[in-house]
Amino acid sequence: MIDVQQRSAQLETTRIKREYFFSRVMSAAMNGFLILFAITAIFPLVWLAYNSVKPGPEFARDIFSLPSRVTFENYESIFSDPGVYQAFFNSLFAAIIATTVTVILSFVIAYFLARYRFRGRNLLYAFFLFGLLVPIHGLLVPIFVQFKEVGLLNNRFTLLAPYTAFGMSTSIFLIESYIRSIPTEMEEAAFIDGANTPTMLAFVIFPMCRPIIATAAVLGFLGNWNEFPFALILLSSEELKTIPLWLNTFKGQYTVNYTGLMAAMIIVSLPVILVYLIFREKIIEGFISGSVKA
Questions:
Q1: How far, in Å, CA of 26 to CA of 32, rounded?
Q2: Which pTM value belongs to this model?
Q3: With 80 as the cut, is the pLDDT of residue 247 above it?
Q4: How far apart are CA 43 and CA 153, in angstroms?
Q5: How many helices (H) and strands (E) does the chain have?
Q6: In whole angstroms, what is the distance from residue 200 CA to residue 206 CA?
Q7: Distances (CA, A) of 42 to 45, 199, 262
Q8: 129: number of Cβ within 10 Å
């Protein structure tokens, strides 16, 4: 009887050790995969950074080696060009205003789609979601023709309309899903206290939606900041060029200033990185809250 108990204890100990070994192996494999994935995501930025301070001839000889001599001539050349400041202003102007208008309109539309049931509601919701499936490149020519007919080409406000229109679908989808998870008792309590619909939206629902609002705003800003096709087709004035168009100045007919282009890309990436660092907690909170409540 004692031998049987000892044998059972040995088998149980062996099983526990085997499970512990496999769990450690799986944990090590998962950690290794995540480390490899992180390296592949970070390396392009590191590669840009050290090549941006490498002399052009040295980069032409070896694109992966570390610079033997660090030079900031590329950065000095960029900051001495007045065009970069104008391009930064143009991109910030279009991205900030378009993102603000997109978030406000999307929030109002998303609320009514989430809370009200009316004839044509599903059709309207499908119409906005259809915007996620429409390729931008397929609409460049029709939009160019329309803007030309109404005289909206080469204008300070030219990019605001397409940026807002194409950004609303994603924002409406995110915000509408989030609002549906908010209990209606919050709105009923606000109405009992005497609040009207605009007041309730501004002081009750909007503060509760701050995580998903921040997520939609950051996604919209990044998309508008990096947008290239509309800016290329609708703008031809040098004074109105955005950052993506300005980056083309480093490419000539037969040659490309690669090290200068990399330095410019590092500078252009800084606002995007800064925006993400400021709102990263809200973005993560918005995604987690939406997934848990859904």
A1: 10
A2: 0.81
A3: yes
A4: 40
A5: 14, 0
A6: 8
A7: 6, 45, 15
A8: 14
Q: Which fold has domain 74-293?
A: MetI-like fold (1.10.3720)
Tell me how far apart the alpha carbons of residues 172 and 223 are, in angstroms, rounded to a whole number. 15
pLDDT at 68: 84
What average pLDDT does the segment 9-30 reach? 78
End-to-end CA, the chain: 55
In whole angstroms, what is the distance from residue 135 CA to residue 137 CA? 5
Of 106, 282, 105, the closest CA to residue 210 belongs to 282
Q: What tokens appear for 254 in the block?
A: 């037969």
Determine the 3-state secondary structure of 196 from DSSP: coil
Alpha-carbon torsion 88, 94, 97, 99, what sign?
negative
Q: How many residues does the chain have?
A: 294
Distance (Å) of CA 63 to CA 17, 55, 59: 49, 11, 5
Q: What is the mean pLDDT of the chain?
A: 86
Q: Which two tokens stand for residue 127?
A: 């119409």
Mean pLDDT lowest among 115-124, 176-185, 283-292: 283-292
How do residues 219-236 score in pLDDT, each as one tens digit? Answer: 899 999 999 999 999 998
CA distances to 74, 87, 238, 250 from 83, rounded to whole Å, are 15, 6, 8, 12
- Segments making up each domain of the chain, as ranges: 2-52, 74-293
Maximum pairwise Cα distance, the chain:
97
Measure CA 130 to chain center.
Answer: 20
Residue tagged 């050290």 (tokens): 50
> What is the spatial distance between Cα 25 and Cα 21, in angstroms, rounded to a whole number?
6
Closest CA to 68 of 76, 81, 59: 59
